[in-house]
User: Fold this.
Amino acid sequence: MKRIFISPSKYIQGENELYNIGTYIKEFSNKALLVASISDQERIQDYLDKVLEDKELEIISGQFREECTKEEINRMTDLAKVKNCGVFIGLGGGKAIDTAKAAAFYLKKPLIIVPTIAATDAPTSKLSIIYTIEGIFKEYLFLQKNPDIVLVDTGIIAKAPVRYLVSGMGDALSTYFEARSCIRAFADNIPGGKSTKAAFAIACECYRILMKEAVKAKAACEENVVTQSLEDIVEANILLSGLGFESSGLAAAHSVHDGLTILKETHHYLHGEKVAFGTIVHLVLENSSKKELEQVISFCKNIGLPTCLKDLGVTEITKEKIMAVARASCAEGEPMHNMPFPVTPEDVYSAIMVADRLGGK
Ligand SMILES: [Zn+2]
Assistant:
């Protein structure tokens, strides 16, 4: 059995680290294409002005437009070719980052990722999600390699809305449990191998840090300040969860998330918020201990993550509706099938109902 572990080549995290991006750009080229929305670029303009005092350096602004589509990716590759850019920078939330990843992949250029929120574990991965212009999911694009550099400025993350940080903790919450299930099942991870001791140790550490630091880190973000606790949680949300999920694999928690997206009530809830409830369902499905379930539910309650359907906007609960979610979460290709036992839509329905009752108390 083959074990595979993948990761970005370099991960840098710290307050005011964005001021050093010029040095990192110059590792590859003197000319970079910045894939960022106008509003995200405005947020970090002070940093860019400082960086551009280095006259050898040029940063072309791509002015990313909202959705990671084939058209937008092509626009970025064309721009990079015309302007002769030697490196891509993907800066912002998920979609600008995914567009930069795809454009760098097609042109075989180096890539620097700069997340401005810590809402998911996507920045470190070699996966890009493509949408239609209407914003409907189209396909997963599996890239050749992970980003060359992931640069996280915790000062910027501390000033972003706290809901993003909390949602990132929801996404990170599932990492350990999904890794544990994949290992028990001998399931494949994202690059198509088995997990390593290294990846599982990372997933365990991710969970430990969440339990220890979450409340303190949330308070820091509410005050827009950087503390050791916030640094730990940002690392858990982005690096530990990113490496953990990609190199150990996903399972029921993310499939329940995918299933929940068919209910339009849940559409204005963030990825990690749905994954948090999916994690409770995951634990019910595998009949995890009462102690573990209680720990996860009270963790979510303490920081304001959803623990029941009502928390995700689903106030009218019918058997048809929840069965539809359960069926979608068991569709072909869903990581639900990475669980160490066969899972039917009926099993998922039962687990959702029990999770909802336990979490709704
Ligand atoms: Zn996720």
